[in-house]
Design goal:
Elements (H helix, E strand, L loop, with lengths): L6 E6 L5 H11 L3 E5 L2 H7 L5 H13 L2 E6 L4 E4 L2 E4 L3 H14 L4 E6 L12 E5 L4 H17 L9 H23 L3 E3 L2 E3 L2 E8 L6 H9 L5 E6 L6 E9 L2 E6 L5 H10 L1 H6 L2 H25 L5 E6 L3
Parallel strand pairs: 1-2, 1-3, 3-6, 6-7, 10-13, 10-14
Antiparallel strand pairs: 4-5, 8-9, 11-12, 12-13
């Protein structure tokens, strides 16, 4: 059973490298949930690229946090009538896809020292080992493991969720936090509340109509809508509030999350329409990235003590 606390690692290998892939999995699975890509998919499809194959690979690149590609001297190719040792096209394709999706710090290429590496791969993390040296291979994988473990979970990237979180942070979170700080609290009616907190409610799932979903989530919560004009903004900030234990709570349900659904729908319409397990997995991952990005930005701006982010089971 997959651990909810472990990051997911994808190992891409050819059939000749499955033994090494198994060794790598054994080394990594203490710290990560590890999957070895079914090399039969590559063997049967790499020269017959089709929409289903690419869709599966694109989904895989969204489901994993890290990627490892294996390259050995068994990967012989013919170049200008000469047999040379360099990575197969499918390995480079996977490497490029995962590097583009996850970033340089979250992908690694574990290869035999004799293998020729293209200059285009400069900048990608390489871990080398001698052919037939299992101990050396294990050491190379351990290097990659340490690299992944040291990778910051909080770095902001360009996944749909991270971009949406950044926009949400700048357009709502910053104005509210700055307004409270600059005014030493918030006036509600004739009472000035010096203790204020912003509660951001993130749903476990996203429905097709996020606005209706959040209206349902607000039912049963007695709140009052307030608005204020923030300096430099051409519009008023409007948000729900409630008083609890003498603290003024701003409560927001970020409807901008609908953008995650739109992104997934465009990338994998079949899975989106069927609400497949792949869709559920990617959606949950994106919601977690939205939260992680918000927390990172809150820490960077010193607003972390003023904001609470919660996941809600309420639909």
């Amino acid at each position: 059973m997959e651990s909810k606390n472990k990051k997911r690692v994808f190992i891409g290998s050819s059939s000749e490298e499955l033994t090494l892939a198994g060794i790598a999995k054994t080394i990594l699975e203490k710290d990560f949930d590890v999957t070895i890509w079914n090399d039969n998919i590559w063997d049967t499809a790499i020269f017959k690229i089709n929409q289903n194959f690419l869709s599966d690979l694109m989904k895989a690149s969204l489901q994993y946090d890290f990627g490892i590609l294996l390259g050995t001297t068994d990967d012989k190719v013919v170049y200008r009538d000469k047999e040379v040792l360099q990575p197969r096209d499918n390995v480079l394709f996977e490497l490029g896809l995962f590097t583009g999706r996850l970033g340089l710090s979250k992908c690694a290429f574990v290869i035999e020292k004799e293998l020729k590496v293209l200059s285009d791969l400069n900048g990608i993390s390489l871990a080398r080992f001698e052919k037939g040296d299992i101990k050396g291979f294990a050491g190379a994988v351990e290097q990659v493991r340490d690299l992944f473990l040291a990778s910051r979970d909080t770095e902001v990237n360009f996944f749909p969720s991270a971009t949406l979180a950044s926009v949400y942070f700048e357009s709502l979170v910053v104005p509210i936090c700055k307004y409270v700080i600059e005014n030493d609290g918030f006036d509600l009616g004739e009472v000035k509340h010096k203790k204020c907190v912003l509660n951001i409610i993130i749903p476990e799932k996203i429905s097709l109509d996020v606005n209706i979903q959040f209206e349902k989530m607000k039912r049963g919560i007695e709140m009052e809508n307030v608005s204020f004009k923030y300096a430099g903004r051409p519009r008023f900030i409007s948000i729900e509030t409630k008083i609890k234990d003498g603290v003024l709570e701003f409560v927001d349900f970020p409807t901008i999350l609908a953008g995650i659904n739109h992104a997934i729908q465009n990338l994998m319409p079949t899975d989106f329409n069927a609400m497949s397990p792949d869709y559920e997995l990617i959606l949950d991952r994106e919601l977690k990235r939205f939260i992680t990005t918000l927390k990172t930005l809150l820490l960077r701006h010193g607003f972390d003590e003023m904001v609470c982010i919660k996941r809600s089971m309420v639909a």
